[in-house]
Amino acid sequence: MIEEFDALAALVAKDHDHDCDGFGPSRVCVKAVAVADLPTRFGAFRIVGFWNNRDSKEHIAMVHGDVVGHADVPVRLHSECLTGDVMGSLRCDCRDQLTEGLRTLLQKPCGVLLYLRQEGRGIGLINKIRAYALQQQGLDTVEANQALGFRDDERDYAVAAHMLLSLGIHSVQLVTNNPEKIRQLAQYGVAVSGRIPHVIPPNDYNRFYLETKERRSGHMLDFTKKRLEEQSDPVVLEGMASPEQPG
Ligand SMILES: [Zn+2]
Ligand SMILES: [Zn+2]
Q1: Is 155 considered catalytic here?
Q2: 85, 93, 153, 233: which one is catalytic?
């Protein structure tokens, strides 16, 4: 009997002794250390566990179909959101973005979702909770982060870029609405050959939340343009300076 060649298992074996100068300002190097089948309620994936050498964080790639050595692979980057992804928080729509991302990829011949351990737009879980407390006092997401001494968005996609290159993916079609993700990946040497829009209409729950916020705080949210989001775009409120978009 001939064993079917397993490109992901081969990749894990190849990465065993991997070490490099790393990517991004923190010079993070990641390596693939384990792979297994992961049937989910959305469909069948393989899960690849990555370990990073800077803070020992564990990241994962959810892989559908053949991606190693392929080009134009649909890719979704998802930053961890414990409160949304796991607890079903209505303060953001991360869980919807995660599940829609997985469903979108399963409709393609192949795809990868990278689950990145950068909680709360990169400020960490405890600081995200602190930011929520400030928001209860009337600050918006951006102001709350800035009050805590953070930029609006501390996320860094160097780890994602390294993971994609480790997976031997030649170019990606990014499932995103966020030009910053495309810009950063390109900066780190990942060829972005296209973009797949990530469209999630407001659901009954977060629409209610947004309308409540509007009614209670007097904030105006434009439902046609921006939604409550943590993953892709900041919530934009009338009278607030637009988030800077790179040119
Ligand atoms: Zn490396
Ligand atoms: Zn979230």
Answers
A1: yes
A2: 153
